[in-house]
Amino acid sequence: MTAPGSIPVASPRTRGTASVTAVLPWLLLVVAFGVLFWRPAMLLGRDWWNDPESGHGLLLAPVSLWLAWKSGLLPGRSAAPVLGAVLLVAAVLLRGASDLAAELFIMRMSMVMALVGLVIFYWGVRQALSWWLPFTLVALSVPLPELLRSAIAVPLQFIASQMGAALLEWRQIPVRLAGNIIDIPGHRLFVAEACSGLRSLTALLALGVLMGGMWLRYPVSRIALLVLAVPIAIAVNGVRVFLTGFLVYFVDPALGDGFMHLTEGWLLFLVSFLLTVGVAGLVKWIETALHSRWRTDA
Fold first, then answer.
1. Is 269 part of a structural domain of the chain?
2. Are residues 137 and 195 in the same domain?
3. What confidence score (pLDDT) does residue 12 get?
4. What CA–CA distance (Å, rounded) separates 126 from 77?
5. What is the C-alpha separation between 101 and 86, in angstroms, rounded?
6. Closest by alpha carbon to 187, among 244, 139, 140?
7. φ, ψ for residue 72 (rounded to 5)?
C-alpha cells in the first residue's frame, strides 16, 4: 500500500522485467535477421576482402554506419508497420528465390531491402528517406552481377585501347590496334578486363555519391557530379594505357606488369579522385552562386 498523495515506486524486480521486455523484441529481431541473411553477409564480406573489383565495400560499409549514426533519428518520426512489413516479406521472398537460383546479387540486395523495411517498420518512411545516403552507399558496395560487369567492362576495354593507341601515335610511336590488343615495335600490350577502368569507375561513382550527399544541396547537382565522374574515369584510364605503352617502349618492358604497373594504377586513380574532388568543388561553387542569386532576386 502507498500513502495518499505519494508516487508509486517500481520494485527492482518490476524494473528488471520491464527492461527484459523492452530488449527481447530487438534481440529476437537481430537473431532472425542473422539467421536469414548470415550467408549473403558473409559472402559479401569475403568478396570485399578478396575481390579487387569489390574492395571499395570495405570503405563504404563503415562510412554508411557512421553517416546513419551521425544523422540520428528524426524527432517527428512515425512508424509505418504495414509498409515495412510488406518490404520485409518481399525481401525474405527474394532471399529464398535467389538462394534457389544461386543469384548472389539479388540475394545481397534483398538484405539491403530488409534493412530499409526494418527502418520503415519501426521509424517510418521519413526516417528511411533521411538515411538515403547510407542506404545508397550500402547498395553501391554490392558487387555487380558477373554478366553485367562483363557487358560494361568490354566496351571500356575497347575505349581505353583506342585512347591509349591514339596517344601513342601522337607521341610518334608506331601502333597497330586490334580490338583490345596494342602492338608496338617489339612489344604487345593486352588491355585486360582488370585494366578496363571498371574498378576505378565504380569507386569514383561511389565517392561521387558520397561527396554529392555531403557537400551538394540539390539532386541535379549530385547527378551532374556523377555524370562528370564517368568521363574522368575513362580518360584517366586511357592515359594509363598510354603511359604503360610509353614506358614499355622507351624505358623497360618490365614496367608493363608487376608492382610498377600496379603502382601506376593507384597513382592514376589518385589523380582521378583529385579531379573528381575538384569537379565537386566547382559544382558546389556554381550551386552556391546560383542559390545566392535566386535569393537576391526573390
1. yes
2. no
3. 54
4. 7
5. 22
6. 244
7. 70, -165
Give the highest mean pLDDT range of 3-17, 18-32, 135-149: 135-149
156: which residues sit within 8 A by CB, 6+ positions away? 196, 197, 198, 201, 234, 237
* Residue ranges of E strands in 48-195: 176-178, 181-184, 187-190
Q: Which residues pair with 190 in a beta bridge?
A: 181
This prediction has a pTM of 0.80
Euclidean distance between CA atoms 44 and 56, whole angstroms = 12
Q: How many CB atoms lie within 10 A of CB 9?
A: 8
Q: In this structure, what C-alpha cell is assigned to residue 124?
A: 517510418
Give the gyration radius of the chain's Cα atoms.
Answer: 26
Report d(CA 224, CA 208) in Å as an integer: 10
The three three-digit cell numbers of residue 290, written as one number: 546560383
Looking at the structure, tell me whether residues 98 and 160 fall in a common domain: no
User: 143, 165, 196 — which closes off a domain?
Assistant: 143
Amino acid making up residue 50: N
Residue that finishes a domain, picked among 125, 143, 161: 143
- Can you tell me the distance from the alpha carbon of 77 to that of 98, in angstroms, rounded to the nearest whole number? 33
| Whether residues 137 and 182 fall in one domain | no
158-190 pLDDT, tens digit each: 898 999 999 999 988 889 988 888 888 888 888
Q: What is the DSSP-derived secondary structure letter of residue 194?
A: G
Q: What angle do CA 85, 89, 90 make, to 5 degrees?
A: 115
Domain that holds residue 164: 147-297
pLDDT, tens only, 95-150: 889 888 778 899 999 999 999 999 999 899 999 999 999 999 999 999 888 888 88
Cβ within 8 Å of residue 278, ≥6 positions away: none
Residue 13 has pLDDT above 70, yes or no: no
Residue carrying C-alpha cell 529464398: 96
Place of cell 558520397: 210
Query: What does the chain come to in residues?
Result: 298
